[in-house]
Amino acid sequence: MLAQYGAVESCEQVNTDTETAVVNVRYAAKDQARLAMEKLNGSMMENYALKVSYIPDETAAPEGPSAGGRRGFNARGPPRSGSPGLGARPKVQSDIPLRMLVPTQFVGAIIGKEGATIRNITKQTHSKIDIHRKENAGAAEKPITIHSTPEGCSNACTTIMEIMQKEAVDTKFTEEIPLKILAHNNFVGRLIGKEGRNLKKIEQDTGTKITISPLQDLTLYNPERTITVKGSIEACSRAEEEVMKKIRESYESDMAAMNLQSNLIPGLNLNALGLFPSGAPGMGPSMSSVPPPGAHGGCSSSTNVFYTQQGHPESETVHLFIPALAVGAIIGKQGQHIKQLSHFAGASIKIAPAEGMDAKQRMVIIVGPPEAQFKAQCRIFGKLKEENFFGPKEEVKLEAHIKVPSFAAGRVIGKGGKTVNELQNLTCAEVVVPRDQTPDENDQVIVKISGHFFACQLAQRKIQEILAQVRRQQQPKPTSGAQPPLPRRK
């Protein structure tokens, strides 16, 4: 129905608690959105009259082609693939809403008589607030999603806490009412920080006590952790600002990394892979339109995601090191998991024999083109987190080894270590070319890469780019009949 008036970029149902559903539609061009509004407003659909209004997208660049039915205060979805890489982030509002959990008995007071209180909060804080009353029938707590600027989210949060406090006094409710923030598990490791330092600093700076729900509480359909903040309303408000600041930074860093990644692998459709928080309530349409991932931060099953201009991209070999205790989880019962993983990724995946009885790590040998490496490694990282081989306060960080021709190692290092330092700064991975290596029988040496999934992937892609340049320079004129390594077409 919508497509007859133009190219529909997205169609997203907005959570409501009334009998009327609200759907936000984004068209590729303003004139298409206006035409749809004119034609559809008042038209009948299954005996109901449609009411259509036009919302200009204030975050769109004036000269840009995109506009249409979106809330003007909040740019949604990942940066477009043509936007700048890691260095220059787009200057739009972060797409992370504030998600709170409130005791069910206070929901009525937050909404107010005929919705007056919630309308007042929305107006004063320039925010859009969804109270998910119908979710989890009978549950002691209900989620609230607040879309706004960081300041708007914080102001709305403070007002809601004040309303609950007043209602508690009026109803003689004596228990403490902590602030409960919901956050996707993908961001929680960085919020906690190494050895809990980030969280401790927020507690010290704000005078609050903060706890985070255990990893075991997560399910495939609920990838959120509960961050409980105890203290005065003022202290909790300050803590909310700091917690959400860290979560938004993590989100933006991951989106920038994904955006850069999509430019490095031709035809990589990150949304279809479902690598990023998917199905999480309150997330943008680009995230909720794919099935929930097979592991937290894992990949959803998809086919025909990749294409390359040269038809058959060159195969790569990566050695990924996993905890020895995790081998059973990766192999699965009667080898089922590793077979499915291999089939899904389109890669050969083998686990090398243990080097000694007390080996702490095992080497997984992954052979396949770039997209297969991306999918296979993504699933392995996700599986290790899902199976609790890394604690709730840890991010999954693994070491990967790539073999490079010994004559190309210098190019990876760069003059005075310049290239390898730039690599580390760009990707946030640790990249080491061990000194004094003896080349193997194929005259190759090892480059070691350590870091979380996106960091590892970016570093691998950048190193492969350097190797491709070296190969092109080595073979300027391939002789007829020979099969040189396939160069990238311009």
How does this model look, in words?
This protein has 3 domains: 1-72, RRM (RNA recognition motif) domain (Alpha-Beta Plaits), CATH 3.30.70; 98-251, TATA-Binding Protein; 291-474, TATA-Binding Protein. 36% of the residues lie in helices and 18% in strands. The chain has 15 helices and 16 strands. A hairpin with a 2-residue loop joins strand 3 (44-45) and strand 4 (48-49).
Label this structure with key terms.
490 residues; alpha+beta; Alpha-Beta Plaits; TATA-Binding Protein; 3 domains; six-stranded antiparallel sheet; 16 strands; 36% helix; KH_dom_type_1_sf; mRNA transport; RNA-binding; repeat
Sequence-ordered SSE layout with sheet pairings:
Layout: E1 8-14, E2 22-27, H1 30-40, E3 44-45, E4 48-49, E5 98-103, H2 107-111, H3 116-125, E6 128-131, E7 141-147, H4 150-170, E8 179-184, H5 185-192, H6 197-206, E9 209-212, E10 224-230, H7 233-264, H8 270-273, H9 285-288, E11 316-323, H10 327-331, H11 336-345, E12 348-351, E13 361-368, H12 370-386, E14 398-405, H13 409-413, H14 418-427, E15 430-432, E16 444-451, H15 453-474
Antiparallel strand pairs: 1-2, 3-4, 5-7, 5-8, 6-7, 8-10, 9-10, 11-13, 11-14, 12-13, 14-16, 15-16
Proportion in β-strands: 15-25%
Looking at the overall shape, the CATH architecture of the largest domain is: 2-Layer Sandwich
For the biggest β-sheet, the strand order reads: 6-7-5-8-10-9
What share of residues is helical? 25-40%
Instruction: Let me know the number of strands.
Output: 16
- List low-pLDDT spans: 61-94, 271-311
Total helical elements: 15
The largest sheet, given as strand count, sense and whether it forms a barrel, is: 6 strands, antiparallel
CATH topology type of the largest domain = TATA-Binding Protein
Shape: globular
Give the total of domains. 3
Average pLDDT metric: 77
Determine and state the CATH class of the largest domain. Answer: Alpha Beta
Structural class: alpha+beta
Distance between the termini: 40 Å
Task: Return Rg in Å.
Answer: 25 Å
Biased composition (Polar residues): 471-482
GO biological process, one term: mRNA transport
Biased composition (Low complexity): 75-90
Pfam families: KH_1
